Amino acid sequence: MSTNGAGPRSDGHDEALEGALRTAMRAEADTVVPAGDGLARIREGIERRRPRVWWQLPSLALAAAAVVGLLVGVVALGLRDEDHGTTTLPPANQHSSSPSPTPSQSRSTQPSPTPTQTSAATETSSNGPVIPPASDVWVYYLMDNGQAGVRLYREQHLAPTVGGAVQTALTEMLQGSASDPDYTSVWPGSTKLLHYSTSGDLATVNLSAFPTVGGEAEDRSAQQVVYTVTANNPSIHRVKLLVNGATPPSGAYDWSQPVQREPMLDVQGLVWILAPEQGAKVGSPVTVNVYGTGYEGNVVLKVFRGTTEVDAKAVTTAQGQFASAQTTFTLPPGDYRVVAYNDNGQNANLDERDSKAFTVK
Length: 361
Hints:
By secondary structure, this protein is of the alpha+beta class. The protein has 2 domains: 11-269, no CATH class; 271-360, Immunoglobulin-like (Sandwich), CATH 2.60.40. Helix content is 21%, strand content 30%. It contains 7 helices and 16 strands. 40% of the residues are buried.
């Protein structure tokens, strides 16, 4: 029996659970004060934003699952502080058929927390390591579709090699651009990686600038760095952020301590389209592969040719955790766009999560 006043009472009520529910119901999205192109795009999404439904709020979704006695295993997974070991993923490095990318060209892929990474030095000579001119790296970006807040989405980029995998990825994140036009970044365009070092599971990232915009966009930008670093070096679990050797300035957050990955359910895109990739040229039937979470795991896929919907199917991922699913569409040659939607958990409306344009050869 509990002796600290928390837990089930004799009348059958659970005060701790009720407190969790009240806290989750009071949660509100932070205000973003953006500037520049990336910030303007995030502002547009926030202006369109509708209130989050219960299954999008991890604490409330988990509490509700506990109340009805469902998804016991999912509850335990959702309470973890990090995402390693909580996902169901397709094999690494699956890509749809498309021309080999040139350096700085990106290709989105499955969001494995521990991806297979191309080494920065793959050959040796009498003069030492031979550094390839380009390396495959994971890069995270932001998107706000107006329904779930500012979220992280990832692409795989073949980027000009700069030192090791993490340095290459961070340089690409700061100075490159996303393949998907819906993805963006609010880092100042002049930001450079000044220094990168590691000590055990701690990485130190020293940058020349920081997006001191406050609110959700600033927090997600810090997580953009943390997720990019840890995706390219899974042995890193903490990241110390510096700007010109000092703690980044901020009116909303204290960046003086190392930062860890926030839980995937809180910051990662709820549904990603893994294949076809943005701009891919594929044959028919077209395999559409998604990765995500949602109310009852339901993801609706619609294919458009121009503004005309030509086909639609539903697949099942997971609720309270992330999982992958796929289906196929038989399409004649032409240009298309596939859009992934989630049930909002309240009515028959669907919320758009991600989209990819592709061509059937």
